[in-house]
Amino acid sequence: MKLIIHDLGTEFDELIDRNCDRTISADGKYAPCQGCFGCWTKHPAECKMKDTLKQVCRVMGQADELVIVTKNMYGGYSAAVKNVLDRSIGTSTPFSTYRGRQMHHTLRYGKHGLWKVVVYGEISEAEKETFRYLAERNALNDGFERSEVVFLQDLSGLEAAL
After folding, report:
1. Which residues are bridge partners to 92 per DSSP?
2. Would you state the pLDDT for residue 100?
3. CA dist., res. 24 & res. 7, Å (int)
4. What's the Rg (C-alpha) of the chain?
5. Model pLDDT, residue 45
6. Cα gap 122→152, rounded to integer Å
7. What is the mean pLDDT of each run of 10 residues along the chain (162 residues)?
8. Angstrom distance (rounded) from CA 66 to CA 3
9. DSSP assignment, residue 159?
10. Cα distance between the two ends of the chain
11. At a CB cut-off of 8 Å and minimum separation 6, what does 133 contact?
């Protein structure tokens, strides 16, 4: 399954929907992570908050390919996208294992294929470097085999990037 998480407006819904199996709109209509770790222990992979991200861990856990479309924020994800990613900690367990000769949390859903980030907006070379490193580390931590980052000055090339 291909999942797209994006911070775009509703005018891009049709374009996004025809390029994936599932979407999560980082529209800010949900609560931020409370850090309770209930999605790890009390009710695995399910957030206790009753909003649109209640099942985000399960949806992300089933994705073979994850595409994140985000505005550049100083070499990092937009606040809305970061909020969605924060709520997905339940895709792993509280137990630890070694991956890539480093300690990481055990994956609840196993390995995945591609972690892809499509970044739009003004971006410096230093920010590009930061984004590449961030995507690589996020992919490793969440059990994705590879990562890729695409940079767009504007959204006219979005469909080709997806």
Report:
1. 107
2. 75
3. 9
4. 15
5. 93
6. 8
7. 97 96 94 92 91 94 97 96 95 89 92 97 96 96 96 95 96
8. 5
9. H
10. 14
11. none
The residue range of the domain holding 155 is 2-161
CATH code at position 22: 3.40.50.360
* Distance between CA atoms of residues 101 and 108, nearest Å: 19
Tell me how long the chain is. 162
Number of domains in the chain: 1
| Burial of 61: CB neighbours in 10 Å, binned 0-12, 13-18, 19+ | buried
CA distance 43 to 5: 23
Burial (CB < 10 A; 0-12, 13-18, 19+), residue 130, is: middle
Answer for the pair 118, 68: CB distance below 8 angstroms, yes or no.
yes
